[in-house]
Amino acid sequence: MVDVNKTTEELIFDAALSIFQKKGLAGARMQEIADAAGINKSMLHYYYRSKELLFKQVFLLSFKQFSASVIPLLNQPNTWEEKIPLLVAHYISSMQKNPDLPMFVINELRYNPDEFINIVTENRVGNTLFIQQLKEGMEKGFIRPIRPIQVMVSIISETVFPFIAQPMINYMTHVQETSWEVFIETRQAVIPEMLIKYLKEF
């Protein structure tokens, strides 16, 4: 049912996000998005001339919202060891909800990097409590002395890569659709364990 309290643009965004998440850019149809938004196709084209433009706008905003959502986790008043599992769970949950987001980001970073650089600049992690905790632990000798950015890159790469490489992983390991969720749940447990052990045991 269409929410009468939302603007036409909000209805289009919600409908497009839902359909793009389920079917991707190739599988989505403008008529389907228009129907889900409760408008006609001509009205949809008035706001967005092409499916590609709509896809870009939807996922650009999704990436911006996702980037901003990480900062509160990094500033929570808990230990750095407690933050790592929370960050891993957050990244994995976000990828499950937006499976097209990683490839979209990669393509945009390659061909249109300026917009993403601006988003990352707005949401710098360098001044967060998590980074400060890592630096303090390294100074006191409790944590392996590496640059904190290496920790963030490890978290991102370890959580995001399986979603980018899912077809290859399925082929190599014969993971079926029913067991993919089990595979990801295992990753969610393994990544923090490996990373924390690496940082503390040296």
TrEMBL record:
Annotated ranges, domain HTH tetR-type: 6-66
Gene Ontology molecular function terms on file: DNA binding
Keywords: DNA-binding
Residue ranges for the DNA-binding region feature of this UniProt entry: 29-48
PROSITE patterns named in the record: HTH_TETR_2 (PS50977)
Name of this protein: TetR/AcrR family transcriptional regulator
Organism: Mucilaginibacter robiniae
